[in-house]
Amino acid sequence: MNQPVPAAGTTDPAIIRNFCIIAHIDHGKSTLADRMLQLTGIVEARDMRAQYLDRMDIERERGITIKSQAVRMPLTGLDDETYVLNMIDTPGHVDFTYEVSRSLAACEGAILLVDAAQGIEAQTLANLYLAIEADLHIIPVLNKIDLPGAQPEKYAAEIAGIIGCDEDDVLRVSAKTGEGVEDLMQEIVIQVPPPVGDAEAPARAMIFDSVYDTYRGVVTYVRVVDGELSHREKILMMSTGATHEVLEVGVISPEPKRVDRLAVGETGYLITGVKEVRQSRVGDTITAANKPATEMLAGYQHPNPMVYSGLFPIDGNDFPDLREALDKLQLNDAALTYEPETSTALGFGFRVGFLGLLHMEIVRERLEREFDLDLISTAPNVVYDVVMEDGLEHHVTNPSEYPTEGKVAEVQEPMVKATILAPAEFIGPIIELCENRRGIQQGLDYLSEDRVEIRYRLPLAEIVFDFFDQLKSKTKGYASLDYDDDGVAASDLVKVDILLHGDAVDAFSAIVHRDKAYQYGVAMAGKLRELIPRQQFEVPIQAAIGSRVIARETIRAMRKDVLSKCYGGDISRKRKLLEKQKEGKKRMKMVGRVEVPQEAFVAALSTGEPKEKEKK
Amino acid sequence: MPSTPPDGEDAPRDGSLPPESVAEARGQHLSAYVHVPFCRTRCGYCDFNTYTAGELGTAASTPAYVDALLAEVGLAAQVLPPMQPLRTIFFGGGTPTMLDPAQLASILDALRERFGFADDIEVTTEANPETVGPAELEALRAAGFTRISIGMQSAVPRVLDLLDRQHRPGRELDVARWAGEAGFERVSLDLIHGTPTETLEEWRTSVQTVIDAGVRHVSAYALTVEPGTQLARRVRRGELPMPDEDDQATKYELADEMLTAAGLEAYEISNWAASPDDWCRHNIAYWQGGNWWGFGPGAHSHIAGTRFWNLRHPATWAGRLGAGESPVQAREVLDAETRRIERVLLELRIAPGLDADVLTESERSRVPDLVARGLVVDGDTLTLTRRGRLLADAVVRDLLD
Fold this sequence. Notes:
The complex is a heterodimer.
Chain A: E1 16-23, H1 29-39, H2 57-62, E2 70-76, E3 82-88, H3 97-105, E4 109-115, H4 122-133, E5 137-143, H5 152-163, E6 171-172, H6 181-191, E7 204-213, E8 217-226, E9 229-230, E10 234-237, E11 243-245, E12 248-252, E13 256-258, E14 261-262, E15 267-271, E16 285-288, E17 307-313, H7 319-331, E18 337-343, E19 347-354, H8 357-370, E20 375-377, E21 384-388, E22 393-396, E23 408-423, H9 427-436, E24 440-448, E25 451-459, H10 460-464, H11 467-474, E26 480-491, E27 493-500, E28 503-504, E29 510-513, H12 514-531, E30 539-545, E31 548-555, H13 571-586, E32 588-591, E33 594-597, H14 598-605
Parallel strand pairs in A: 1-3, 1-4, 4-5, 5-6
Antiparallel strand pairs in A: 2-3, 7-8, 7-16, 8-15, 9-14, 10-11, 10-16, 12-13, 12-15, 17-19, 17-20, 18-19, 21-22, 21-23, 23-25, 23-26, 24-25, 27-28, 27-29, 27-30, 30-31, 32-33
Helix pairs in contact in A: 12-14
Chain B: H1 19-25, E1 31-36, H2 62-79, E2 86-93, H3 101-115, E3 117-127, H4 134-143, E4 147-153, H5 157-162, H6 171-182, E5 186-193, H7 200-213, E6 217-222, H8 230-236, H9 245-261, E7 265-268, E8 271-273, H10 281-287, E9 292-295, E10 300-303, E11 306-310, H11 314-322, E12 328-333, H12 336-347, H13 361-364, H14 367-372, E13 376-378, E14 382-384, H15 386-390, H16 392-399
Parallel strand pairs in B: 1-2, 1-9, 2-3, 3-4, 4-5, 5-6
Antiparallel strand pairs in B: 6-8, 7-8, 10-11, 11-12, 13-14
Helix pairs in contact in B: 2-3, 2-11, 3-4, 4-6, 7-9
């Protein structure tokens, strides 16, 4: 460093470069970030650990980054001037499109990082389009050029075709070996424009992330657009009108470092003492309470759950623990919604709203892992708007709320724009899958000789039900999928109930397209026949739309349940078996008079094939 | 005797019993079980504690076995309080008739000497049809046996083959006839149903054969595939289907109908007799919480709320006794509630039934539902219907708190 690095709050916006990295899981974003931390000298070699910025264990294991951070790095440019690079980390999955868009809005440039052995993936492409729409300068980069299977020429051509640049403009690096990373950083200085803002105007800063910390409360990450934010200042959240005092303001480099203020173009964090991330929402605009701005920054959205599922503790006594766990998760997850739900089959639980399937999976996994809860989750469903002939409207987030009285005039279901990228050889199976899932094709383009981009409009409900697994299995894992909200559409939907010995089992009710109702009914009844042990009486299993039965199976009555031989040496064993069986009975849920093992619920609600019924 | 012993607590090496059991047993009835762990060959379905000659060295030869058994009789006499003379003795196995009549007689003599015999003592031995002829039966009768239980299993050669049984069909009928001629008052024929691939007609043939033999006692068991047996391996390899529970239920119902029509009443789930006098009194003792000492490797005993069981291998069992120690592997001292639960699960199985006073109030309140479902008859005592016998374990689970 030839010149001292300017302190935050006094940095000329002209030397600031705000950028993010757009990449698919496993394409090396974290490794590239690690390398930059080392090259700029802000992390000593001895402190270096892999995936330095990914803090949460769950992220490290799954190789995905849910929460973004902004890291301030000094760099001496080729012109010997000192620059400040702010690297803003972006979430990498389909469920977090809105959060990605806010991270992008905090930047002027984006590195498009693509694995030189695999090419661009659907989610990366979707995020790239978001970045282009946000007017970001794109620096295309191929990573992993050291791999034997790397095909940089092929994928450079593919990228050039997508973003309309020259193949030679695509940089080539190996984040692992460090090759080309220094050049890349200099290109950021050269290519990415500096931030522009009005230092004299009332302060406006956009929240691009908000993280709960056990010790500090909520840590809010901001990008200052106009004016400045200082220590001890009273600030105003423009969407909610709430005011808070700034208890701490700082930058990440790469550990949190207190500063006096953040000025135009800078990124950093604020701590105000709020306890829930809902009070500090991503996309909101922060201004000064005593000199507020008149207009919010554009782009704020309230996160709406797209997918709902019931979560029930396997042991009913764990219900209070589940509530406490959800309360804790919500501190850090503004998109998580839940309300208590009672199921006749599963007992007390919660109806939980998620942004999408990955969000659902992550929440479930954290509940089980971090809070040690055993859960049954019902099959995920989307939100339906049901309009009755008398004009009454129902917003249905749970199949059990589907109106059973009165005539339904119309049902609207959420739709998505889906983009699938895959090798061209799989076009057939992909189209077949999408058509089978009520999709309408919107386009098909070759990205290169042997890779295609297929676009479909699909009901979200079809994506939610096992679509991704099917896509993966039909394409040997080569296809990638992205989807985005595309409004609603009217559909011919019906509610299918499953009746066990005449009693409807609410956990198994589903809203499906009329053409699929029979298929669903037969499959679910068949699955349950395999999963539910024989009882002392015959148990009919019926699938019904309203009062009309569309499928039927029967569990025959158990005729023999006795140990044939019971002499002197058998008695202790026999009594212990009885104790074990009685213990097992406690894990049964009663549906009317039918005893259903917990495992049957878990298995029936999973979307895969049923396992063979266990022999006694 | 099942292959896997239950878990239990350690028992003292001197064989002493808990003082409360000793006090309770004083002056009570006593039975004896003698386990003879020898077989000529091992049958494919059998997981009992038994050994062929090739599997055992000389340490566990029959003379060594008899010596150890006599030592155990001495030990039992030391640790038991004074009790009534023996009312029943049962020799099981294995194949008790692998011992020669003189060896069997020496065991009976020792038991008589130590414990005394009641006037109407019942002394049963199990017998495989292929190991006894008229001469052996005469000798057994002379040694003091009064009852014989013949392991017939099936009257159909194809089914006997599946079970690895070697006797010629019809042989068991000869044995039953010879036993009568030798002076055995009571003869039982024992059947197995539900052998994989056995047809309903084949089963009907077997049941008809025992009826035609005119015996006054029949046992019929559903075949269970025990882990570790040759049969289990054949089922796992797909050579034979797993026995089907519906098929076994159908066969049970058929047997019960045929035997009842022939004048034999079920007095326990798997046992039928022409009259209460023909019941196996030894087994009744098991089901009514009686006291018995089980002699021999792996044998189980019950004395006034303490259950204990011997080391399983003949050599280790004999080794302990040779060293002047108890051969007990482990024991369970039952508390009052456990004994009550055992009463429910055992006494419901038999014709005398379960005294409703054994049940708690909430348990009694569940009886009407079981009656309405056609599983239980609520008379002087609670007894099971035919359907109830097939679902006895479920009935006990439904009944108990």
